[in-house]
Recover the amino acids of this structure.
């Protein structure tokens, strides 16, 4: 098996080993109802990581996704009683605009993306506090049942959030694998100067990638808010590191050019299974961030194309 094949299938192999190990510890782990629950719990993380995949494939980063998700949950929670289902596209639009702002700051001002998106994260966080009046906003049960049933309900025995995640997986996979935009994302990540020399507007590709990342982060916030029945400016505070880890553990190279959305889905499942395993052995939520950090370092070491990084600073 060559390096390319190993990088493609290693996440699935790791997931299989983890599932087998936990099923030995807990024989009920492989019960269909439990697997459905685990998949449903994974979908919020996957939705956030799926849009982030496009940005990382560019060789960039987006540190604003958790703030965008929290802000989107606040927008939906505040306005759903007044405007009904319109609050959902309003929240998604807020995420897309935040992504557009990150792209403009980075491409027009030529600021490194980890600085520009970190700064935008602070701005978005402030908007979240403003929309929610610095508090958690409950979503009335009647509004949840009327407008958010496609998330909180179930269809054919499968929770709505899983259907939302599967639709996102299919649409984004098709976008990345079959569309000219997807090919440009790969090209920019693999060899940006060659794409520039061919006359392609690279800044436009980056703009749409960041808009997509913001949109998907907002969708993650909407799903999270619907599940919990409230919106909060700190709702997704612990999701940034797991989201980045899900993308990279899934085999997307942090240096860009290599990756796929379905592998990010596998990466998100790995993160969720690892979280469950740590819970079984009694590791606290805060200590789990240490494990996710170690996973991220290991995944970067495996997937990183060192030929693109001549000097490490």
């Amino acid at each position: 098996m060559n390096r390319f094949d190993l990088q493609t299938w290693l996440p699935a192999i790791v997931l299989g080993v983890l599932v087998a190990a936990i099923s030995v510890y807990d024989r009920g782990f492989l019960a269909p109802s439990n697997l459905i629950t685990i998949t449903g719990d994974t979908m919020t993380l996957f939705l956030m990581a799926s849009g982030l995949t496009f940005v990382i494939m560019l060789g960039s980063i987006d540190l604003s996704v958790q703030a965008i998700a929290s802000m989107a949950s606040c927008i939906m929670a505040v306005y759903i009683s007044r405007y009904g289902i319109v609050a959902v596209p309003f929240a998604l639009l807020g995420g897309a605009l935040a992504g557009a702002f990150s792209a403009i700051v980075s491409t027009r001002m030529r600021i490194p993306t980890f600085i520009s998106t970190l700064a935008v994260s602070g701005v978005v966080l402030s908007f979240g506090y403003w929309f929610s009046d610095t508090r958690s906003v409950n979503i009335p049960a009647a509004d949840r049942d009327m407008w958010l049933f496609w998330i909180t309900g179930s269809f054919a025995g499968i929770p709505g959030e899983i259907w939302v995640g599967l639709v996102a997986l299919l649409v984004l996979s098709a976008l990345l694998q079959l569309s000219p935009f997807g090919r440009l994302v790969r090209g920019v990540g693999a060899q940006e100067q060659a794409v520039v020399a061919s006359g392609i507007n690279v800044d436009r590709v980056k703009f749409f990638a960041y808009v997509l990342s913001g949109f998907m982060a907002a969708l993650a916030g909407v799903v999270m808010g619907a599940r919990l029945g409230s919106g909060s400016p700190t709702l997704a505070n612990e999701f940034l590191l797991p989201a980045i880890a899900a993308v990279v553990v899934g085999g997307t190279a942090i240096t860009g050019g290599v990756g796929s959305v379905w592998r990010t889905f596998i990466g998100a499942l790995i993160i969720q299974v690892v979280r469950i395993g740590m819970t079984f052995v009694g590791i606290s939520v805060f200590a789990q961030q240490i494990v996710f950090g170690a996973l991220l370092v290991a995944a970067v070491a495996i997937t990183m194309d060192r030929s693109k990084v001549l000097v490490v600073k």
Observations:
- The chain has 13 helices and four strands.
